[in-house]
Amino acid sequence: MSRRYDIVVGTGGIGSGMFLALEGNRTLGREESRPAVLLDQRDYCKLHIVCHYVAKLLGPGFPVVPIGKVGDDDAGRSVRAELAGVGIQTDHVTGSALPTLFSVCFLYPDGDGGNLTASRSASSDVSPADVQRARPVFVAYHDRGVALALPEVPLAARAELLRLGREYGFLRVAGVVTGEVAEARDSGMLADVDLLAVNVDEARALVLDSAPQSSPADDVDAAVRELTRLNPRLSVVVTAGADGSWTWDGQRLEHVPALPVDVVNTAGAGDAHLAAVVVGLVRGLDLVTANFYAAVVSGLAVTSRHTINPEIDPASVAEAAERHGRGGGGG
Q1: What's the total number of domains in the chain?
Q2: Residue 143 CA to chain centroid, in angstroms?
Q3: Phi/psi of residue 102, each to 5°?
């Protein structure tokens, strides 16, 4: 299968974290003190997760270029080494006087969870000027690249990446988290996006009337209507955990069921899904088929206790696709 794109360049959070297993499934309260167990699980931030899977699934020789910052600390040196260890270029992962981004992932006994991420970190120090320093990469791959604008760095840096992507004919892919949805929508940034990847809660927040609908499918339908009002050319991927995922390709809304697997940890599953969608598009798949492929990858991701499942590679994805009857997705 011939490739449609020859490079992936992105900005977003780079860092590490810890997992806490909460006792009890009730939602963590504002003033509650809840006992938790510190788990032996590795946590990573968004850009790191996406770049890792893109590099692993596209293989050696495919350039993956993250733009970010880490602190002058053990965590920063460790994540830079891990990125380089899977063949990711780290020339544009530079230093900051602030500490490396750190997050705390909390898990409920039923497998659900959430994430707390430090706001004053090296990732928050990423600026439009840092993105501009990667302009030669865009020049070299004119019309042949994917630009990823992901959370955990300032919106201004992500907007600059999207502008560079527009200038040099890159496919522009973005994600937002719930707390920044209003700013991203009102700033006009979404007009510079070709493909938006969100989960169902983030999709709901994008709708001005954000009251939940009768089902995730209704929430997705309402979000797509609002998003295409803001940007009629926008394609959308929405993930909803066990309820599967949806794609809007500008013409039709398609649902893909989640892989039936024993879930160990859902943290990072959405990032794995996005990475696999990007891999599918790089390989020349249409969005719906790329989303089938992504459902297999995210299904494998949730079977690991770590935010990055170290066992995911092209062979394991192909085997899982065959086992679950989802072959033909770009293996």
Answers
A1: 1
A2: 22
A3: -135, 140
How many CB atoms within 10 Å of residue 163?
Answer: 18
Q: Is 118 part of a structural domain of the chain?
A: no
58 in a structural domain:
yes
- Tokens representing residue 189 in the block: 């940034």
C-alpha 3/C-alpha 6 separation (Å) is 7
Nearest to 163 by CA among 120, 197, 132: 132
pTM, two decimal places:
0.91
Tens of pLDDT along the chain (331 residues) come to: 568 999 999 999 999 998 898 999 999 888 889 999 998 888 899 999 999 999 999 999 999 999 999 999 999 999 999 999 999 999 999 999 999 999 888 888 987 777 788 889 999 999 999 999 999 999 999 999 999 999 999 999 999 999 999 999 999 999 999 889 889 888 889 999 999 999 988 988 887 655 555 688 888 998 898 888 889 999 999 999 989 999 999 999 999 999 889 888 788 899 999 999 999 999 999 999 999 999 999 999 999 988 899 999 999 999 998 888 766 544 4
249 and 287 Cβ atoms separated by less than 8 Å: yes
Q: Which amino acid is at 279?
A: V
User: What DSSP letter does each residue of 259-294 carry, written as one string?
Assistant: P----S--TTHHHHHHHHHHHHHHTT--HHHHHHHH
CATH number, position 137: 3.40.1190.20
Residue 108 lies in a domain: no
Which domain covers residue 247, as residue numbers?
Answer: 46-89+127-323
The residues, any chain, with a CB within 8 Å of residue 176's CB and separated by 6 or more, are 151, 184, 196, 198, 202, 206
User: Measuring CA to CA, which residue among 181, 118, 163, 170 is closest to residue 146?
Assistant: 170
Q: Does residue 6 belong to any structural domain of this protein?
A: no
Nearest to 268 by CA among 150, 171, 189, 172: 150
